Please model this.
Amino acid sequence: NFTVSTAMRFIGLFVKMDKEMVIFSGHSRRYNDSPRAIYEYMLAHPEKYGQYKCVWALEDLEFTEIPGNPIKVKSDTLRYFILTLKAKYWVACVNIERSLHYKKKGCRYLNTWHGTPFKCVGNDAGGRRDYDFDTLDYFCYAGKYEGDIFSRAFNVRKDVMIPSGLPRNDELYHVTDNEKTLLKQQLGLPLNKKVILYAPTWRDSVDNGRSCSLCPPVDVTKWEKELGDEYVILFRMHAYTNKLMGLEFNDVIRDFSSYPTINDLFKVADLLISDYSAAIFDYAILERPIISFAYDYEEYRDLRGLYIDMEKDMPNGICRTEDDVIRHIKTMDYAEESLKTKIMVKDKYLEFGGNATKMCVDKLFEE
Model:
């Protein structure tokens, strides 16, 4: 790390900074997350930002369609690192330096991160000590809870934090019933059934990183029998999970793992099932019921580490079996569960949000 960072700083002496270049990185691989929201805001305001040359770092250049015809570069290649040295503005939801440290003086770095954390992150996780965001110019946060975590776990200075929430979530504060109906039609979902979104987070690899597998204890036949008359269930696998075991899909349980825009799935979902995913905080903005299906709670808590006691701090504690989940869905009071989400999650953890994109862009390009 020290050697390569030093080499990058040396190379940077010979790469002239372009004061009108902005490089975006959404999880270092895809056109997504808050960098996408910021980029599309800039496209929508050409009178202010039309002169900027935008670069997107991507895993797959050929099959990624992006409006506005930006420059595309494959992540983690030599050209990628040269362009980071050239661009005056960095916008990322991960570490754009890829755990190195070579940011130039005069470069402006906005890091939005990618969610309010349940599980330990940064230097709080797995004995890591290499996260150092001390050179950031701007960092988004949604409330005191996560602000304190980010300051400690990433070494983010308090003075660079923007009380904004996540740009990617702005649209969730303004969803209408008409938008929800239109989206259900576009996604091919029945209008006469309610929608459940099941979005578990990823599990750490047990084979030295070759795969991140997931095997949720779900009997598809049982879910179809118990819930199929009233619900359609959308399954959304985390992007880091690359091996799914034990699930088969049909008209009742449908696979939306490859669908690019998770906010669309939040909007149409009447209910979220998740575990330790930041999706719980994102979805809470809509003030709809949430079920924590934490079938491996003790194991996950002890191995990965959690910031929250989910048995106490989640609206209904945790469900450990699929029977618990199904029973809760069939017997719950929808209005009461929605109010629990508002009080116990949204109001408690999300103090800021709804106008994050404009706040971030104004900060990034301010004189």
About this structure: The chain has 14 helices and 14 strands.
